[in-house]
UniProtKB/TrEMBL annotation:
Biological processes per GO annotation: acylglycerol catabolic process
Matching PANTHER family: MONOACYLGLYCEROL LIPASE (PTHR43798), MONOACYLGLYCEROL LIPASE ABHD6 (PTHR43798:SF5)
Pfam families, per the entry: Abhydrolase_1
Species in which this protein is naturally found: Nocardioides marinus
Protein's name according to its UniProt entry: Pimeloyl-ACP methyl ester carboxylesterase
Length: 309
């Protein structure tokens, strides 16, 4: 007989990659969250802030991509509210998550950055631009959508979920405290045989209750009325085998943003990890495209500036 641990190891492919060290960071007036901050190739490297998927952590979603992205960018991850060691607040809101991202940038001394998000993180990235357009110099949106209530079934599902979360909100504080107390210290010196155990620890650091709160918040996201006003270089990574967020919705997101480039990955909704060998090169390509377009815009702006006499 195989143990659950042995079955996990044999049934689920987990790529091995270096896990960068991190720390708990206080966001003044907001709470604490777990952050990794990987330097880029030079002191003046642009910064990319990676925002994770529903039910995951910053590291669990992005760990295979951090080292490749750090060849061009300073790479920052954080645990969003109610996830992992993220802020434990009475309510979960994507609006607050977006403000948390900018609050972290303030603490780290980052003036402007590229916001990159996967699935739920993509919705948060959209909101970061919406709420703080002066801080965002580019977007990378992967496996995500402009909204999540399209069909009658989806509208019914999210309406019922919101009602259930509101009715049970009285116990949210105790649930949040329980989740926080379960969060273990992150393992840093891993060998390939440890990666499944580490991933399971990361996954378990977010409670099912927190996932329900975050899912309800995700159902309230609706960016379609203002997507056309996004004015920073944007790349959309489309997971073409996705059965969670249909590729057609991801393509529609790209087409709604003026000048957005589209980058396809032959993978499903968990491609960021389970098909990392396909996803990571495309993600790096998308981020490189945003960086190049950002430089071009800066150069054109300099050329158009009035000359001092």
């Amino acid at each position: 007989m195989f143990s659950p641990r042995q079955l996990l190891r044999s049934a689920v492919y987990m790529p091995f990659a270096h896990i960068p060290p991190g720390r708990v960071v206080e966001l003044p007036g907001r709470g604490t969250t777990y952050v990794t901050d990987t330097p880029g190739p030079s002191e003046g490297s642009p910064t990319i802030v990676l925002l994770h998927a529903l039910g995951c952590t910053g590291l669990l979603t992005w760990y295979p991509a951090i080292a490749p992205l750090s060849q061009r960018y300073r790479v920052v991850t954080l645990d969003l509210r109610w996830h992992g060691q993220g802020i434990q607040a009475p309510e979960m809101s994507l609006y607050d998550c977006a403000d948390d991202v900018v609050a972290l940038a303030d603490v780290l001394g980052i003036e402007r950055f590229v916001a990159a998000g996967y699935s739920m993180g993509g919705a948060v990235a959209q909101r970061v631009w919406r709420q703080h357009p002066d801080r965002v110099e580019g977007l990378v949106l992967a496996a995500t959508s402009a909204a999540f209530r399209f069909t009658p079934w989806e509208r019914l599902f999210f309406t019922g979920l919101e009602a259930g979360m509101i009715a049970a909100r009285g116990i949210s504080g105790s649930r949040a405290a329980m989740t926080a107390s379960r969060s273990a210290a992150r393992a840093l010196q891993l060998v390939p045989s440890d990666i499944h155990d580490w991933a399971m620890q990361e996954f378990r650091s977010t409670s099912p209750w927190a996932v329900g709160q975050a899912l309800a918040a995700l159902g309230r996201h609706h960016a379609r009325p203002w997507l056309g006003r996004i004015d920073v270089p944007t790349a959309v990574v489309v997971t073409t085998g996705d059965h969670v967020i249909p590729p057609s919705r991801q393509v529609a997101l790209a087409r709604a943003i003026s000048g957005a480039t589209m980058h396809e990955v032959d993978g499903g909704h968990a491609a960021c990890v389970l098909q990392a060998e396909r996803f990571v090169p495309v993600m790096v390509q998308a981020a490189t495209t945003v960086a190049a377009r950002r430089r071009d815009l800066g150069r054109h702006s300099d050329l158009g500036a009035p000359q001092q006499v």
